[in-house]
């Protein structure tokens, strides 16, 4: 499977000129970043299939630098995998990560049949941290993350001591796990705010949960039902510093029978969680019927999509239609993450989503609650997911799938048929707040702008014959803040200062139209037209 990424940029007064296409062979100096030697795969294999051959471990430090010889993270172990895991088959991409190896997806231009004299690393060592294709939205490329963090440690003595102290506290909070050392490394390499928040939330949430009514925090599934958290994140994506083992044990303690591990643009965190769950089940610490479902949070060119029951990674920054199609082609299900944002209701109606998530926050919740009364969307269930980055937050809230068989096949079949619903009562205070007077009336009045906004987007979609249209105006962010109440004081101040965009008629700031695998984007402020596209084949 190959990834094609195209980016064309032009100002409004010039013709389009394509930028140099990344991935073409360039003269390379002697590599100094990471020494890998991957065996050439059989002709009938592909990179997402199970790797059954024993891969040699990397013998060089990860990210050494000739100018800064002390910049070293760790050396890959002598054996490919820790023997205690009892792994009989090595799977992509998790086992490459265990060995400190680069997966082929981080160098899409490498074709072994065309460059037999070069290994993957010899051809791609520069690309791991610099390839334009890997400038992903958010924290998705582990090589970029690790390189940036190590550079920060080298430059700032204070940061080194802060991280060392946090790592010591984290180790004391999570003793005795099989992946103890690996969890600490992933936690320390992530953003410091995640590690700090993890340590505080792991203490605060259990205490808060004890004083809350049990029906707000416990997962309760009736006969013929399965309680599931449809999205949690792990430290693999550097979006979290949570201990995966604690997350699974907490889910089971709260009465859940399944969780979907969906990191940003990564699958190996979910595969790792599956192995941990199997080990805990053998030890009798996790129910035998407990399931870990492989998912992925994918940021498309026009919004977030949650993929469930995946077999291989779906790259980000593709069009929303292409993303949903790729998820369905591999037998997965696709949920719209933010149906309440401008244009979200139209995306939900026009594209074959299998459901959507109810998100906290007054603006999105009010907009999403209106979708519950739309008869045209009755077949697409509205669901809860905790989206938790922390072990203590799993299952807060959760959803119910109407099946008593917790096998992935049964869960997928029931969810695809719409036999699922948001079950937790955790959001009830928010839902009541946005529905009752006087707040409900104010939200309804402000929402009329977004109803008009969605209608105009639909008209443009028809006129431009596009699969999807994203429209941005000068009023969008301001009115979202007013509806969410978080920026209401600042909005009132701007009105009094005569600096509010609401004092002028709204005008379009950006317009994007998607056609199959490409998006044509116009930015009015920069007077720039951009053609962007990614395609898998």
Keywords:
seven-stranded mixed sheet; 2 domains; TIM Barrel; alpha+beta
Strand line-up across the major sheet: 7-6-5-4-3-10-11
**CATH architecture type of the largest domain:** Alpha-Beta Barrel
Unreliable runs, pLDDT <50, ≥5 residues?
Answer: 11-88
The proportion of residues in beta strands is: 15-25%
Q: Could you say which structural class the secondary elements and strand pairing correspond to?
A: alpha+beta
Rg, Å, rounded: 24 Å
Number of beta strands: 15
* Rounded average pLDDT: 75
Do you know the CATH topology of the largest domain? Answer: TIM Barrel
Structural write-up:
The protein is of the alpha+beta class and 537 residues long. The chain has two domains: 23-130, no CATH class; 138-473 and 507-537, Metal-dependent hydrolases (TIM Barrel, Alpha-Beta Barrel). 36% of the residues lie in helices and 16% in strands. It is built from 18 helices and 15 strands. The strands form three sheets. It has a seven-stranded mixed beta sheet with strand order 7-6-5-4-3-10-11, with helices on both faces. It has a six-stranded antiparallel beta sheet with strand order 2-1-15-14-13-12. A two-stranded parallel ribbon has the order 8-9. Helix 4 (142-155) crosses helix 5 (157-173), helix 5 packs antiparallel against helix 6 and helix 5 runs parallel beside helix 7. It is globular. The protein starts with a strand and ends with a strand.
């Amino acid at each position: 499977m190959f990834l094609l990424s195209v980016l064309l940029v032009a100002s409004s007064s010039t013709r389009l000129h394509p930028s140099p296409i990344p991935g073409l062979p360039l003269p390379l100096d002697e590599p100094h970043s990471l020494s890998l030697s991957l065996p050439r795969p059989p002709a009938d294999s592909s990179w997402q299939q199970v790797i059954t051959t024993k891969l040699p471990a990397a013998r060089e430090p990860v990210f050494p630098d000739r100018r800064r010889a002390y910049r070293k993270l760790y050396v890959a172990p002598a054996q490919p995998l820790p023997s205690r895991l009892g792994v009989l088959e090595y799977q992509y991409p998790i086992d490459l990560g265990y060995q400190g190896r680069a997966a082929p997806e981080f160098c899409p231009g490498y074709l072994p049949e065309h460059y037999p004299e070069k290994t993957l690393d010899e051809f791609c060592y520069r690309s791991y941290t610099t390839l334009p294709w890997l400038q992903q939205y958010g924290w998705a490329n582990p090589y970029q993350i690790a390189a940036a963090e190590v550079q920060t440690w080298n430059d700032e003595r204070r940061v080194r001591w802060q991280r060392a102290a946090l790592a010591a506290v984290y180790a004391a909070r999570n003793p005795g796990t099989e992946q103890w050392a690996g969890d600490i490394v992933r936690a320390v390499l992530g953003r410091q705010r995640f590690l700090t928040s993890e340590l505080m939330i792991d203490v605060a949430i259990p205490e808060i949960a004890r004083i809350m009514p049990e029906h707000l925090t416990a997962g309760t599934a009736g006969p013929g039902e399965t309680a599931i958290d449809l999205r949690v994140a792990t430290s693999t994506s550097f979006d979290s510093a949570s201990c995966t083992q604690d997350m699974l044990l907490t889910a089971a303690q709260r009465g859940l029978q399944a969780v979907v591990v969906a990191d940003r643009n990564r699958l190996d965190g979910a595969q790792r969680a599956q192995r941990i769950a199997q080990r805990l089940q053998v030890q009798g610490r996790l129910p035998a019927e407990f399931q870990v479902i492989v998912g992925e949070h994918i940021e498309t060119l026009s919004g977030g999509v949650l993929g469930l029951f995946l077999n291989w990674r779906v790259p980000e920054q593709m069009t929303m239609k292409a993303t949903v199609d790729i998820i369905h082609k591999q037998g997965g299900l696709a949920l719209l993450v933010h149906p309440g944002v401008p244009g979200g209701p139209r995306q939900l109606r026009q594209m074959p989503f299998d459901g959507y998530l109810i998100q906290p926050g007054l603006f999105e919740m009010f907009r999403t609650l209106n979708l519950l009364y739309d008869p045209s969307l009755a077949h697409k269930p509205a669901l809860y997911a905790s989206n938790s980055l922390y072990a203590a937050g799993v299952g807060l809230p959760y959803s119910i799938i109407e099946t008593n068989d917790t096998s992935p096949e049964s869960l997928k079949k029931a969810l695809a048929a719409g036999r699922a619903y948001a079950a937790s009562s955790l959001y009830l205070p928010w839902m009541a707040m946005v529905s009752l007077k006087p707040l409900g009336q104010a939200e309804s009045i402000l929402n009329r702008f977004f109803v008009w906004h969605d209608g105009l987007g639909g008209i443009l979609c028809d006129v431009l014959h596009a699969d999807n249209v994203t429209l941005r105006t000068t009023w969008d962010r301001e009115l979202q803040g007013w509806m969410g109440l978080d920026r209401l004081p600042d909005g009132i101040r701007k009105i009094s200062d005569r600096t509010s965009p609401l004092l002028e008629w709204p005008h379009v700031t950006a317009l994007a139209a998607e056609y199959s695998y490409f998006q044509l984007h116009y930015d009015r402020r920069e007077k720039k037209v951009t053609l962007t596209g990614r395609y898998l084949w």
